[in-house]
Amino acid sequence: MSSRSSLSDLSSFRLKEGIRLGVASAATQIEGGDRNNSWYDWYTKGHIRDGSDPSRACDHYARFREDADLMADMGIHDYRMGLEWSRIEPEEGVFSEEALAHYREEIVLLKSRGIRVLLTIQHFTVPMWFEKTGGFLSERAPELFLRFTAKVINTLGDLVNEYITINEPNVYAVNSYFYGIWPPGIKSFRAVIMFYRSMTICHTKAYRLIHKIRRHMGFSDTKVGVANHIRIFEPACRFTLWHLICAGLMDLLFQKSITRSMSLGRRTFPIGRCKGVRPGKYYDFIGINYYTRSTVSGFSDGVKKGAPVNDLGWEIYPEGIVRAGHMLFDKYHAPIYITENGTCDNTDSFRAQYIHDHLKALCESKLPVAAYYHWCFTDNFEWLEGESARFGLVHVDYETQERTVKESGKYYSRLIKEAAGDEA
Fold first, then answer.
1. What does the pLDDT look like over 194-205, one tens digit per residue?
2. Does the domain at residues 7-249+282-415 carry the CATH identifier 3.20.20.80?
């Protein structure tokens, strides 16, 4: 998909009644200024492909007012935002009231602009002191994560009623502890299983804790979930047994096992028992991050021959977002939040078409989709890719930090107005 899509060429479709169209971001990817987290440390070790420094990013920590105004100008009323743990707890057991006051000011400002927040507590990065304890592989990890969560909810819980405890635990596990290409750079299947158990304990206990604290505050509208990264694993040849086995195993090991463990607190192969976790229901909505399909002929990702791809080589497969939705809804039966969906399109030549095709597929399905968050609001620091991979509706000139709404951003604004029943 390399040709530019004219906004006037995009066919119309009926948006699901009541669907909320928002945008998403993560603290480390936009804020800049922090050098106390695991990803800044990874950068100093030379692992970012274009050499980008995450302590620059989009300078959002200083420019949050400007970004809130821009969001409001675009008609955006729903925003999934994250917190930087290393800012809030720069040393073990030492909390920064200044950082907490900053996040409180930002959320109050967003609300004053008519923007509702879905708050992510943990999105890939951790403070360096936590990493040095062994990170999420440490036996103390749940205790430390719950202490941080309690501090956040006690400080911000009166402002926010919707929460993501952990973003994409499976992507975190595979990249950090299997392939070793993310911090802390470990390559061990055993470490992946230990990490999955830790994630299950952290999420299930945080789920109960968040509900408990807000209930004591007098609120009964709390909603908590996980942003599950879900992709479609398709055998390269449906008549080749090896392809079928590999696709099934990757589906199980990458997503189905950890989703069941964190959602229900139940034993599941190969994760097994998670200490102190009782079977139950640990979600109020189904969070899905969907981007692509993997065509499988072995234990590695592949792309279907001749399929359209984005600028990172990921297949563009709109039908997959519905298949991913059914994969979880048919089992867990709760409202669906598409907590991330977007594409790397450095010239903004096909992003509007991508948004159109994925939303059209969702809205023509029978899935109970309550919210859709486009990834992402502005271009940002895209982990290993650094500043070279642009996913934003808003272009960022990293040298000047100037923001410019892209054509795809204008298209998305129009959709939001339609969803609200306003004139396009």
1. 999 999 999 999
2. yes
